[in-house]
Design goal:
Structural class: alpha/beta
Strand order of the largest sheet: 9-4-11-12-14-19
Strand content: 5-15%
Oligomer: single chain
Number of helices: 18
Number of strands: 19
Distance between the termini: 22 Å
Largest sheet: 6 strands, parallel
Shape: globular
Radius of gyration: 29 Å
Length: about 625
């Protein structure tokens, strides 16, 4: 695509009459200006983690917050436990069922049942893109409002409206819109309705299974790009006389959020799709990972929960109900998910909170002696270690060796003392050999505690006298986690800070975010990870600002900020007056008016460097 921005020059020949002179027939034609045709410039939106709809291998919904019925158990339990002010607790049977459900092979879900389809059709009819369809059919858009007052609408028009809405639903479904949660359709609809004198922006979605390695998702994404570039039929932009043109040198613009940003960069820079991409706009990219994920392996999600009786606690409890309130639950749920592990901090992570700029602070000399120099250590070796690893123990003896929990310690770290003396029912009569040097302490083993396997955090090495047979499936689980860490290591090392030559960054800050993870031991040797010590407002509540912006020129790359960093006090600098939320949290940025506004403004800016297709005759 050339860099100049020449104007399109369209005309057409029209027969206006015939002359008959003797036996010769002649046709008189004149050239008249025709309707300017616009060039197709496809845009693909790639969402973040949890934003793709996932199904089980049986076809049933596995993760689909659009479908309340499929998620009602998590919602109801989370709501109930918010109201009564307790953390989420699972029995071993519940945990086994939940992990079996979450780890089902499955795949991306792109269909709806009738109730959801009805809601989607209603949304389509209220959107500006639908008005464009009505105009093509010369139907008054106000008929969609169903308020006809003095006159009855034409029944044929109403039938046409319903028919057009169903056609648009089918079109969006074929273009990947419904692989993505409906909550994130705001971004796609705004792009879809963008107006430009030379270009049209058909919008596609790409949902992917965020549980699996992002390498696999990236391979599918490259195929999706090829499919989009091969498409030649865009009836929503005019069927009669084809009111659009296809550029034979066509490329796509990619808009991403969160995990989708990392996956898209990998597709572009490692799998070779860069030549098919004009530019990429990243929102809230965890470019070098997010420390909060590592912390959740150590503590679970419970420390993030706010005051139990607040509205905000409801969402937190729902999240806890799905992924696990304590460290053992979270590790069982998230550990085997390759995609989740790939969001851990990488060796390129830079923290801007302390002078040494390191995100993991270990302040106990005993732990440091075992873990080695954290700052020079390969982070993936640390993730697999039996001291500070993802599945390490959380209690140590005076020499820093992992040991079982005592009754009081276990109640504390597993949150099983919610209703008082509940844990007493699970106290074991342990053997004398198990109580060496501590005959007056009760320890917890399999079959005698509510969260048995957490006692040793499924580590590869256990205290003397405790074998893998004592912890069901422990060795298999440890091997599985280690494999996922190695997969993340290979993925991260292939990508590093590589990015497309035309990369634009949108970031947000001002929400309390885990920038640091501080680890120490208390006087009893129990692992401590104070939540508030790691909090800072330099981030979006999930991803630190340093990880979001590291690709920007001068900070680690050659990317450009699409606009000013989004905050709650930011004024609109785009002039587009986008309707949307002002919430700057990580999950809400695709619906944030500033995030959407900066995205649209950048797309319009980019078109100035692209020459539209020219055709002198139609």
């Amino acid at each position: 695509m050339a860099a100049s921005a020449e104007k399109q020059n369209y005309s057409k020949s029209t027969t206006i009459g015939k002359l008959y002179s003797g036996g010769t027939t002649a046709t008189i034609k004149i050239k008249t200006k025709g309707r300017p045709k616009k060039t197709i410039l496809p845009v693909i939106y790639v969402p973040g983690v949890f934003a793709s709809r996932i199904k089980k291998s049986t076809g049933e919904s596995l993760w689909d917050p659009d479908d309340i019925d499929s998620m009602k158990e998590a919602y109801l339990n989370g709501l109930f436990k918010s109201v009564i002010g307790v953390d989420v607790s699972w029995s071993e049977k519940e945990l086994d069922d939940k992990t079996e459900h979450m780890h089902d092979e499955g795949g991306v879900l792109d269909t709806h049942h009738d109730k959801i389809i009805k809601s989607a059709l209603s949304r389509i009819k209220q959107g500006k893109p639908f008005r464009r369809l009505l105009e093509l059919k010369k139907i008054d858009p106000w008929l969609v409002e169903d308020s006809f007052e003095d006159e009855d609408p034409d029944e044929n028009d109403l039938n046409t409206i319903d028919s057009l809405a169903k056609e648009e639903y089918a079109r969006r479904q074929s273009r990947g819109w419904y692989e993505i949660l409906n909550e994130y359709a705001d971004m796609m609809e705004h792009i879809y309705m963008l107006e430009d004198k030379d270009f049209l922006f058909p919008t596609f979605g790409f949902g992917y299974d965020w549980r699996h390695t992002l390498h696999d998702a990236a391979e599918l994404f490259v195929k999706r790009i090829d499919k989009v570039l091969s498409q030649k039929d865009y009836p929503e932009f005019g069927i009669k006389d084809q009111d659009y043109l296809i550029d034979p040198a066509q490329k796509v613009i990619i808009v991403t959020h969160s995990m989708g940003s990392i996956m898209s960069r990998y597709a572009s820079e490692v799998l070779g799709a860069s030549s098919k991409i004009h530019s990429i706009i990243h929102l809230n990219q965890p470019t070098t990972g997010a420390p909060v994920l590592y912390r959740r392996f150590v503590t679970g999600t419970s420390p993030e929960k706010r005051f139990p009786f607040s509205i905000s606690a409801i969402g937190d409890n729902v999240f806890n109900e799905i992924l696990g309130n304590n460290s053992y639950h979270f590790t069982r749920m998230a550990g085997p998910l390759a995609g989740a592990v790939q969001l851990l901090p990488t060796n390129d992570y830079v923290c801007d909170e302390t002078p040494d700029k390191h995100w993991l602070q270990v302040t106990d000399t005993k732990l440091n002696a075992i873990a080695g120099n954290i700052k020079s250590k390969n982070i993936y070796d640390l993730y697999k270690s039996n001291t500070l690893g993802l599945i390490s123990c959380k209690r140590y003896d005076k020499n820093g060796t992992p040991k079982p929990y005592t009754k009081e310690e276990y109640k504390r770290v597993s949150f099983t003392d919610i209703f008082g003396d509940e844990v007493d029912d699970y106290v074991a009569n342990v053997k004398a050999d198990d109580l060496k040097n501590a005959s007056d302490i009760s320890y917890y083993y399999e079959n005698n505690t509510l969260y048995t396997k957490d006692n040793f955090r499924l580590t590869s090495e256990h205290p003397k006298g405790i074998s893998y047979d004592d912890i069901k499936d422990g060795s298999t689980f440890f091997t599985s986690i280690s494999e996922k860490i190695e997969t993340a290591k290979a993925f991260h090392n292939s990508l590093r800070l590589k990015h497309h030559k035309k990369t634009f960054v949108i970031s947000s800050t001002g929400k309390k975010t885990i920038n640091l993870v501080n680890i120490s031991l208390d006087n009893n040797g129990v692992l401590q990870c104070p939540y508030k010590q790691g909090l800072s407002k330099n981030g979006d509540g999930t991803v630190p600002l340093s990880s979001q912006e590291i690709l920007i020129s001068g900070k680690g790359g050659s990317a450009t900020a699409a606009g000013p960093t989004v905050t709650t006090s930011l004024n609109d600098t785009t002039g587009l007056n986008i309707i949307g939320s002002s919430n700057i949290t990580h999950a809400k940025m695709p619906s944030n008016r500033h995030g959407i506004g900066q995205t649209l403004h950048k797309i319009i800016e980019l078109t100035a460097s692209i020459t539209p297709v020219k055709k002198n005759s139609i």
